[in-house]
Amino acid sequence: MPRRFLLTSLFSLAALAALLVGQTAAPVPRARARALGIKVGILPVGPLNAITDVTGVEVGQTTLDDGKDIHTGVTAILPHAGNMFRDKVAGAVFVGNAFGKLMGSTQVEELGEIETPILLTSTLNVPRVGDALISYMLALPGNEKVQSINPLVGETNDGGLNDIRGRHVGEKEVVAAIEGAHGGPVEEGAVGAGAGTIAFGWKGGIGTSSRRLPEKLGGYTIGVLVQTNFGGILSINGAPVGIELGQYYLKSALPPSNPDGSCMIVIATDAPVDSRNLQRRAARAMMGLARTGSAGSNGSGDYAIAFSTVHETPLVTNDAMSPLFLAVIEATEEAIYNSLFMATTTTGRGRTVQALPIPETLAIIRRSAQK
Description:
Blueprint: H1 13-20, E1 58-65, E2 71-78, E3 89-98, H2 105-111, E4 113-114, E5 118-122, H3 126-138, E6 152-156, H4 171-179, E7 198-199, E8 202-203, E9 206-212, E10 221-229, H5 241-245, E11 261-269, H6 275-291, E12 300-308, H7 322-342, E13 346-348, E14 351-353, H8 358-370
Parallel strand pairs: 5-6, 11-12
Antiparallel strand pairs: 1-2, 2-5, 3-4, 3-12, 7-8, 9-10, 10-11, 13-14
Helix pairs in contact: 3-4, 6-7
């Protein structure tokens, strides 16, 4: 059955009328995919349609934007608000393509545990952010005798819009992101670690989404947060958006045809899942990434980090994992769309990267659904 594009009452009537008569309306405010009538997949979303729908998960962000050449930051995902070293969570990492830097990944793979907040930032800032995270963890009450910390820090390269060599994210910004983390709505678009990123040639950034399984399938919640900075041929719910907008990989030998870049994907759940099945679930995030048209290029660093917030048995069995797999695929796909729809046009380093045009994109999706 073809996927449908649904126009909802949340999409402004004025903008809709302008589309129907082929006119350009006043600037359309940035909005999330579902607010624009785009329904991804079949599973229901959580109340906020965000990673924070998983109970206890918090997100904090520090954004640096000088209006000129600094567009960068840090995004912190906390599985819980306590001392992560003393109360570790089951975790796993899956690598789609390893052209990237994911500090701390090998210990997570070996032990199946995550013991710090998960931080996302800019490529050359990974060592500085990792060092700041270590300092933060060592200073927590109860960690006075700790002699080993495994900071988990991922990145994408925002050097197209940001003075990446300046390595502007330091301890102050990291602490602010961690201590400012909270539940509830998550800011998306050109914020935090997504302040200077580019996706499909348009402004990328931070995006999030969630899915909630029916009670007969466990009633579990799955949340995803992405940092998008990659190329390809943008497809939204199967509609050839990139092609029809004339911006896609291999259209020419010049940017934005270059598909290189990265996508960091963080997956949370309240399902009791061990590290082995968390890794299997993280692998499915690459299917959600592929649905959006990612080229999976040689120069991409595509990573998924998954964790469970619960410590209980019995664990979800292998035979019961398939609904969780689908939830990850759908939430990853929608989170990527949200990162694009919520991003705003950004200028840095003598370059302007436009936000994905909403009216034109919606018109393409509508035409595709009618075929």
